[in-house]
Write the structure tokens for this entry.
Amino acid sequence: MDIGSAIRSIRKRKNITIAQICEETGLSQGFMSQVETNKTSPSIATLENIAKALDVPLAYLLLQKEERMGIVRKTDRKTTTSGSGQLKVEHLSAARNMRMMIVEIPPGASTGDEPHAHEGEEVHVVLKGRIYAEQGEDAAEFGEGDSFSWNACVPHRVRNAGDELAVVLISVYTEKELDTPYYGSY
């Protein structure tokens, strides 16, 4: 774990000196320096005191870097295509087990000619237009503001049911950690 770097980063961002941390926690400057350079591992009780001095939750100090807030600026979104290149997919964010994306579906376009299945659960929110979704024996048409969800292991298909571009916000959750960007049905 890289707790020391997190402590140093927070301390510097908040303009707190090592001496101030030591004064509040009773720790020596040498010990704090070793903590910040990851040369020693403090006890949970010591970490709790440091977190209090930094005014951050103890749990935040224990997070791995990849577990902390992930930021994707609008201008930095990865964009891919799917459905024979007809669907534009903007990848909004990616956590270890979850992906969020905005999918643009042109009139007449779909996720494919045949329903397909994959691991995970999906939640869809129609932001614009009308879509038709089918999963197994269930099917429905959805308009702006409507939402639906399903277990993606059951074959499913989505298509634009209107005359204008349909835009859908999709969140996909999987039990296992995803190492690569999720493209799934989109």
